[in-house]
Amino acid sequence: MVANIRGYTPNYKFRLINFDTPRWHTLEYANWNMADALLLQSGIPQVRGGWQNNTAYLEGDRVFDEDTSATYRCLIAHTSALTGTFGEDRILHPAYWSLQLSGTPVFRDEWVSGVAYVLGDIVSVNDYTFYLCTMAHMSSVTFPPDALFWQEVFDAAQVVIDSEAAKDAAYQFSLDAQDSANDAQSSANDAQSSEDDAAGWANDARAATGGFRWAYSSSTTAADPATGRIAFNSATPASVTEIYLSAYSSEVGNPDVSDWVATWDDSTNVLTRGTLQLRKIGAPEQFMIFELKNNITDNGAWLRLPVAYINHSGTLINGEALSVGFVRAGNQGPTGTGGGDMLRANNLNDVVSVPSSRTNLGLGTAQIPTFSQVLLGNDPSAPMHAATRQYVDSSPSLVVSDTAPNATTSLAGTLWWDSDLGTLFVLYDDGNSKQWVQATATPGIDTSNLATKAYADAGDAAVKAYAAPFDAMAYSGMQHNGSFEVSQENGTTPVSVVNALSKYVLDGWIGQVSGPGTLSFFKHATYTPLGYPASLVMNVTVANAAPAVGNYAVLTHAIEGYRMSRLLFGTASARSITLAFWVNASRTGLLSGALLNGAANRSCTFSYTVNAANVWEYKTVTIPGDVTGTWAKDHTAGIYLSFAMMAGSTVCTTPGVWTAGLFWGAPGTVNCCATTSDNFAISGLVVLPGTQAPTAAQSPLIMRPYDQELATCMRYYQKSFPYETPVGPNKGALGAIAYVIPVASAYGAAEAHYGTKMRASPAITCYNPAANVNNKWYNLGSAADSGTPTIAHNSADRCLLVNTHVAGDLANHSLVIHYVADARL
Predict the structure, then answer these.
(1) Which of 168, 525, 602, 780 is most buried by a 10 A CB count?
(2) Given strand 106-110, what is the order of strands in its sheet?
C-alpha cells in the first residue's frame, strides 16, 4: 500500500494523511502512538484517563475528572467506589486525591524585569516565543538568567519568515507531496500572511487563558449580583477590594461552579491565595487582574472574594460577557537547617576568615552583636550578581538583634533574626498594620502536586528525614484534650446548658449560653473524622430561632498562661497563632469564634466556612499576635478560645483584628441553634504557635496519645471515682479514700495524694459512696453514715480529710468517702 500523504508536521514530522487513503486509521494510529511516546519522554506524567468505579489506583496515579476536566493525583493506594461519581468519592475520602492543576494558565503579556511571576504564568519573549513559568520567582534584569524558571511552550517566530524562506519551505514540502506544484504556488501567498497568522495566534493565546463565563453587573452592593453575574464593590478598577460572584456561571444552563471557586483560597500562602484574570469575551486585550488576598465567603447563591488590584485595560459595560480564570498560589514551603545556619552558638564561626567577615559586616569585635544590619544591595548590573540574584529590587534589610526593630519605621519585607531565640521573622503588612511574623516553615508541607517521578521515588526518605520534627509538632500544641476523648466528670452522659449558665461539659471545655434556648453537649466515640477517637457533639433541645443582639452560644477552651507564654502576647514581638480542627454542622455558611485574654477585655474573632451540611470538614485559621493588652504567663488563664454556634450582632466584631472588649464571633455567623434539628460537632483541635498547620491527612498523626492527655487534664481536675464512673453519690466504694478506726476515738482522717500535681490548690467536693445523697463519710462496718468531712490540709499535691465520729463508729470499722479536686480555669 502506498499512503496518500500530503506532507508532515514541521516539528515532529507527524504524517498528514488524506482521508481517502486505504487503511487510513492504521497510519493515524501510528501518529497517536508517536504522540503518546513524546509526551512521556517530555516529562509529562502518565494519566490513566478518566476516573472509573471499582478500579485499583496506586499512589502517584493521575486521572481526569470528566465532569470538570481537572486532573487529580492519587495520594493513597485504594480501590475506587463501586458506584457514584468521582466528586462524591473525593468527598467521602478527601485524603485519597490531590488536585494536580487548580486553574488555567495566566498570560502576563511580554516578559519584563522586576516582576513577581508564579507557577502557571505565560509570557512572550521577542514578541512570538511563549514560555510557561515552572517556579515562582522575581524576574531579573534580562531574560536569559531566568531561563531555568521557564519552559518554552510555543515558538511562533518560525512562521514569521520572509518570502525567500517560504519558497524554500515550499520546495521541501513538494518533495514529500504528490501535489507539490499547487503547494509551491500557494506557499508565497502563505508566507505573505504568515506574520498576520502569528499575531493572530498570539492573540488567541492571550484569549485562551479564561475559565468560565460571567456577565458583568455594574452594581457595587455587597449582595447576590444575580445568576450568572459578577460585580465589584467599586466602579473604579484600581479601587476594587471585593468581588461578588454568582455561584452560577453564565454558561449554557447556568452550571453551579461554586465548589470550584471555593477551592481558590486553599493555598496556605499568607500573602496571596492566587491571581484572578478577567477578560472581555471577543476583546481579550481588555482585561482586569486581581490578587485573591484571603478566605472566600460562601453565601450559598453567591461568593464574596477579598482581592487586591494589580492591573487593567479598557472599560466594562453592564451586561458584557467576561471570561474568569484563576491560578492558585503555591503553598508556603518548608525551610531546613544545616551547618551554615546563623545560630547564636556558631555566629560567623563557619566562614573562612571570621575577623574579615565581621569587619565587612560592621559587627565590631564582640562575638554576639548587639545590633547589626546587612543590606542586600549588590549591583544588579553585574553579570554574576544578576545571574545569582545577589541583590533586591527595593531596600528591605536583614536585621540581627536581640530585640525587635521598630515595626512602624521599618519597611515591609524586612527580615529580623532574633539572636536570643535563633528565630527568623519577616515584617508583614496586611494593609492595616505591620507586624513581625515568624518565618520558619514547618517540615512536612505537601509538595506532591509539583513532584516529579524521581522526587516521588525519594518520598520515603524525605518522610524519614522529617519524622522527628513532625512528631515534635504534636508537643507544640497549646491545647489540652483536643481529641475530646477525656471526660472524667461526665463520661458520655449529656450535659444540659441553659440561659446564663457556663458549665464544663468535657475536660477543658465549657458550654455557655446567653438567651433563650437549651443545648446538650456530650462526648461521642464513633461520630468522628477518620483517625480520631472522639468528638464533642452539641444538640439543640430548646431552640432560639430569633436571637437578640446580645445572645450567644459558645464552646470555650481555657489555655493556661504557662502554655501560651512563648507567644509573647502583649509585646512588639507577639507571634501569630494557628488553629486547625475538624467541624461537622447541620448548617452551611459562615461560622466563627474568638480568642480572648484571661481578663476577657481583649478579643480577636475569626471566621471559617462550612461548605456541606453534616460532613466532616478540615479547617485552619491563623490569627495575628496581640502586641498590646495584659496576658497572663503563669498558672492562671492565658487565652480563652471559643467557637460560636450563635452570636448576636453586639457580640460580633471584624475578624482578624484585636479589639478592646468581649466579643464572641464575626458578623454574619450562621445560627446553629435555630431549630431542635440543629447540631454542631468538633474534633481534632490543635493550637500551634506560628503560621503553619498540618494538612488534613497529617492532622490525626500529631495528636497526643490518650495517656498523656489524661495526665494533662488531671492538672486541672481529678476524682477518686473510677475513670468510667460519672461523679455523684451512690457510686460505690471502689476508688474511695478510706481509714480504719484502730480504737474508739472522737476523730479519724484520710489523706488523698493527687495523681498529678495540680495547677493550684483545688476546690474539694465530697460524695457519700452509699445511696444516701449527701457528702458524709460512710461506715462500712455499721452500714450507716458517719460525720461530715472537714479539710485539714489542701495543696496542689494532696489534701487531708478529717471526720468527727458519731455513735456507732467503733474500733476496727472502715470509713470511706469519694472526693473531686477541681482546679479548672
Answers:
(1) 602
(2) 106-110, 121-125, 129-133, 150-155
